[in-house]
């Protein structure tokens, strides 16, 4: 069964600190992996997308890594800000159809305290 | 900033009522999707569309129905709402007109929080 597992489930850090969120997946055949940020009561917003040949992708203070061999990804947030408080969702797409079936993780709820 | 809109943002209704959740996008995207999300849980695909007059059921069984008469509009209807339908409903779209790719990023609307009493 194709699955996406994220850890930790929740995380609290102080403003200015760095953190790393983890994503393990079993989706096959793999097409791409995305990280989304979802603010409370809002829809998810795409942060990064990585295909099989990419092992790192940055978007400002967000840096995602991908190890397609071990089927693991991480999202590193540098110098956290209060506005980073949100749920971060790992989403993996397969190559089974033109639509690109998406498999969603349950997200890591990040809280940044002042 | 994604140009995809959902109305209403919040809806509280009684059991047995018929409701329609609206979703519109102005990006010319061919593909549109409806997801259901409960608190702390992953998104589940309930409906999707490749284009006008195309609708398909997703992975999660849903008593809702959808239509795609216009490219920009993808409404979701519940004929008789029940408390089990209480959830957040997210609409998304992806792909350029005439283009199809599994790497297309999905752009999400703000969601509709539905509560059925």
How many helices of chain B does DSSP assign? 0
The average pLDDT of chain B is 89
Helix proportion of chain A: under 10%
What is the beta-strand fraction of chain A? over 45%
Q: Radius of gyration of chain B from the CA trace?
A: 14 Å
User: Element order, helices and strands of chain A?
Assistant: EEEEEEEEEEE
Would you spell out the secondary-structure blueprint of this structure?
The complex is a heterodimer of chains A (114) and B (117).
Chain A: E1 4-7, E2 10-14, E3 19-25, E4 30-38, E5 45-51, E6 56-59, E7 62-67, E8 72-77, E9 86-94, E10 102-104, E11 108-113
Parallel strand pairs in A: 2-11
Antiparallel strand pairs in A: 1-3, 3-8, 4-5, 4-9, 6-7, 7-8, 9-10, 9-11
Chain B: E1 4-7, E2 10-13, E3 19-25, E4 31-37, E5 44-49, E6 56-57, E7 65-66, E8 76-78, E9 87-94, E10 107-108, E11 112-116
Outline the structure in words.
The complex is a heterodimer of chains A (114) and B (117). Chain A is mostly beta strands and 114 residues long. Chain A is built from no helices and 11 strands. In chain A, strand 6 and strand 7 form a beta hairpin. Chain A is globular, with a radius of gyration of 14 Å. Chain B is an all-beta fold and 117 residues long. Chain B is built from no helices and 11 strands. The model of chain B has no long low-confidence stretch (mean pLDDT 89). Chains A and B meet through strand 4 and strand 5 of A and strand 5, strand 9 and strand 10 of B.
